[in-house]
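User: I'm putting together a teaching handout on how multi-component assemblies are represented. Below are the sequence lines for each component of a complex, exactly as they appear in our records. Could you produce the 3D structure of the whole assembly as structure tokens, so the students can see both representations side by side? Please keep the chain order the same as the input.
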Amino acid sequence: MSGLTANIYLLTPEFILAGLALAVLAIDLFLPDDKKSILPILCIAGLVAVALVSMMMLPGVNISLYGGLLAIDAFSLFFKIVFLLIAIFIILSSAQYIKQYLSHQGEFYGLLLFSVLGMNIMVQSRELLTAYIALELLSFSLYVMVAYSLSNAKSNEAGLKYIIVGAFSSAVLLYGLSMLYGATGVTKFADIGLILSGTTELSPALWVGIALIFVGLGFKLSIVPFHMWAPDTYEGAPLPVTAYLAIASKTAAFALVLRFVCEGLIVAEALWQDWQIIFAVLAAVSMLAGNLVALAQTNMKRLMAYSSIGHIGYILAGVTVLSADSIVAVNSVSFYLVGYAATNMLVFAAIIGFFNATGKDNISDLRGLADTQPLLAASIAIGLFSLAGLPIFAGFTVKFYLFAAVASSGFLWLAGVAIIASLISLYYYLQIIRQMYIEGADTSHGVASTSGTVSLPKAPFSTTVVLGIGLVVVIWLGVYPGPLLEIIEFASEALIG
Amino acid sequence: MAAIDEIILISLILIPLIAAIVAMVFPKDNPKPVWYFAIAVSALTCLLSIIAFLGYDYSEGGYQFSRTYDWIGDPVNISLALAIDGIAAPLVLLNGIVLLGAVLISQTIIHRSRDFFVLLLALGSGVFGVFVVQDLFFLFFFYELAVLPMYLLIGVWGSSTDFGTFLRTKEYGAMKLMLVLVGGSVLIWIGILALYAQSASLGSPTFNMIELAELAQAGQFSQEFQKWIFPLFMIGFGILAGLWPFHTWSPDGHVAAPTGVSMLHAGVLMKLGAFGIIRVGVMLLPEGASAWMPILIVLGTVNVVYGAISAISQHDLKYVIGYSSVSHMGYVIMGIATLHPVGVTGAVLQMFSHGIMTALMFAMVGSIYERTHIRDTNVLNGLIKRMGTASCFFAIAGLASLGLPGLSGFIAEFMVFVGVFRTYLPLAILAVIGAAITAVYILRLLAKTFFGEADPRWEDLPDSSPVEKAVGAVFVAILIVVGVWPAPLVRVINIGVDSVLQGL
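Assistant: Of course. Below is the structure of the complete assembly, with chains in the same order as your input.
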């Protein structure tokens, strides 16, 4: 250990990010209301700068900082870039929404940047307390963002529900940490792994400690049966926050789970096999329950909430088959997370665009969208086909890859359940596509023109850009994922082997 | 030629797929340009499929035009391996012909025609893909790609049927077709993953079908394993082939679909299922196939008889053809289940012959429905007086389907019967009875609807358009040529079938 300042320059991206968040808050104070639209531009410029700095500085670095609290490696770099991209696209697709529906824009962007900072530290942490603090930084930002629509009772209720469940799950997580620490005396993932691989029988305290940690994380990830908060929170939160919850917070939490399991648990092979069964059952229950309940939804946001619970189940199946011998499982989880993020981004960007034009978010409101807004309809349809796992879209490739990894690790039954669950999901995705393409246009919203067709206000340019990029990425991942997989493999090797 | 050999199979997949993406930029409201574009693309793929078929050297046999493109390397190993054998070659040709015919017939699609052709070309690409790939990942990829556009093609451009007491809406037909077919692909997907997991446990994880077939030949897949996994493929692919009792999506789907889509679906898509049973089931799991074939042949016989009896009781023209397809796919299933060279060759020939025949029937019925807006055989009478060409072509297709010598159906069904006679004699008798029932509903239809008393209501009926006549004439010519001179097709198919059955 060579002091706290050694290699501190490796954290430059995080410093810039923190500075940017504070700067946005400060600048907001001095901006007149009609100039606030430079805030999103400033945020995007800053995030791009952070991404560029990370890309220039960090590739090839593989160092633990502060005696093993933070890992600066290919894995964290990969996910940092993913988080930054998600944040950029969320801002691009929702700047219009935020201007139209939310007050206090400056604080919103500031909180968003702080949450990105939280995610970045989370994926780098290789020690339980650091991970916990990063998780809380993310969660606290989200608590406020969920309740951001002050005048909307549903948003307030969602915020309240989210903060209570969030605080509860944090408490559970913290209690688990303390029990684990009490039993082992260490908090670093690698040390936990060493101690676990040395024991043949788990002491009850250790078992309960690890279990409580996963229960806490299970709440954050909305794994069934810890998912009850998710649909209400998703429905009440402002749309961009719903998108952010569904995409970014889940990706980040899984990145943490990947590192914790890979460094801390799978080294103890015999013990990990017991845990695998528990994870497999949770995964199967999540994917079935999420997709079955989604069948009954009429609101787009609730539907996406249950659909994301289903997808969390698939990803958890990938976590189940993590093993020290093979990086395929790590690859498949990372790959799925990217495909899931890209596809959801596409769908949410289109839903946000639709909401800006109409102020509605029920499935039946999408009637005839293919005639009134072909680009939005095509984006939603392609996104949903991708979520349902149909080619030539990202969802097919990532699902096939993930399920192949699950099946070849001896969990063929779990892959089978996952495949059946994705058949169930196809039904409700098709119902939405039916509203958009098969049902006639609803003339109650938008302006009926003389020719009888309905025209909606045009989506802003930034939405079109997001949709365009989203479509390209979703199709590109579906037909030619080779280059991305090579990068992911590089990242996975930092974790295993 | 050599240059074309290099790229022919990849072009068959990529040209329609890229064209589908390019077609998205065509104007939304003007149907003509995108139709011409689709014709150009499908004519090109039709030409390529003819070149592929003629270029397939039957004296050499085996896999030809093989090319492998790396896709995902270690440790998962997926590559786009392309090759055709004697079974795939005629089916590629079939898809080339029917796709072009379906695009031409779809002249009448005016509403959102751009989206229609985008989806139709994507479907064509998926079908070509299934026939030419040698990798299970991509087989499944293209299989799903061929199923995916069906929901919108039927839901948006299809038609509902009113039965008086109840309504079969196009939304119902589309959703049923989609869910049942994807339900079938669930089984296929699990089967593929099981094969992959098995190969991984042998130390060489692969999706490559040629490598998996070698493992199967070497006896690496235990009999137990094969017996468990084969039914997944048998039923999964069987659903798409219209296997009884999973066939009900097929008449509902075909009837609800617009003409061009019915042609492709009954003509080519159902063949994907039968092709999958041979290519994946029989080739990769030979012992499983031997164990399950007695059950499959019984189901196939039920298909033949049940489909034919159902067709008798229908009085919607499209439902008659829909159930007749179920019945005729029964011959294909029976032929495959014999695992006898003559029977399997007959089955593949029947796929080709039925593909052309049923596409022709749907095209002509579409042409009639376009003008009368009625498909009820109780109402339609004596169409020959007004729509002479369409009626004649329909009659020829009908005669081919009941197995009239001189037309393609006869050779194919005869070979299937020979195969079944040599293996399962009692069932062969039932199959022949099925053919007799076919004669009942086809001849009844011809006698009344087409050649019966002319109904004054249809006096002003215009005849089919020149495009429809041209498509019909080509299809009729193919039925006759294959009927009188089947040697080129049979030779190619035979070589493919022999190498598949060698593994047994």
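A couple of points students might notice: The longest strand of chain B covers residues 64-72. Residues 2-502 of chain B form one domain.
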